[in-house]
Amino acid sequence: MNKIETIEEFYKRKFDWMPDNIRNEIGHFNVFALEPLVRNDPRPVPYKRRDYYKIMLVIGNSRVHYADKVVEVKKLALSFSNPQIPYKWDHLDNIREGYFCLFNHIFFHQFGNLSQYEVFQPNGTHLFELTDEQVTKVQAIFERMAEEINSEYAYKYDVLRTFVFELLHFAMKNAARRRF
Predict the structure, then answer these.
(1) Which of 113, 108, 115 shows the shortest CA–CA distance to 80?
(2) DSSP secondary structure, 62-130, as one string
(3) Which of the four, 41, 59, 94, 106, has the lowest number of CB atoms within 10 Å?
């Protein structure tokens, strides 16, 4: 397998630019809507490990390749990726919506141990099928993230950490019955 993709390489591959605050004392966090990133010719996400965490809401058909299985997303899913698990996404249609946030481990330094949660454990569940009602709730959390990251609030990164915990608890609590 190729080397681990760094967060800097992600930005270069996906956007061909790098945020100014990529490496600072609080770690890195960012949130994006998928709509502007989808083109008529969606590029597959390469199979490899990354040095960052990613939580993604996907609305549309996709296929996710893990080392030991391939999972097809038929409509709605919430995905949790971490540095321990290599994966690859193939988007099967061009009309997709959703959001994703990415962050590094430094962002959560002294704010909790993400590896204790099932969604970030190697043998845990990383992909959750959602109902239409659940998508509305998850989408609202991502929209609040996007609003917060653009705010001038001095403690906005604490708020963003709270939103990440809200997503992982939502998945484990409410979507556990609908695992892929």
Answers:
(1) 115
(2) EEEE-SS-EEEE-SEEEEEE-TT--EEEEE--S--EEEEEEE-GGGGTTS--GGGSGGGSTTS--EEE-
(3) 41
Q: Cα 51 vs. chain centroid, distance in angstroms? A: 13
CATH assignment of the domain containing 28: 2.60.120.280
Q: Report d(CA 177, CA 180) in Å as an integer.
A: 9
Domain of residue 151: give its range.
Answer: 7-178
The tally of domains found in the chain comes to 1
DSSP three-state, residue 53 = strand
pTM: 0.82
Question: Could you give the CA distance from residue 178 to residue 27 in angstroms, rounded to a whole number?
Answer: 32
85, 49 in Cβ contact below 8 A? yes
Judged on CB neighbours under 10 Å (0-12, 13-18, 19+), 164 is buried
Per-residue pLDDT tens over the stretch 44-79:
666 778 889 999 998 888 888 888 888 888 888 999
Angle at 37 between CA 36 and CA 40, to 5 degrees: 100
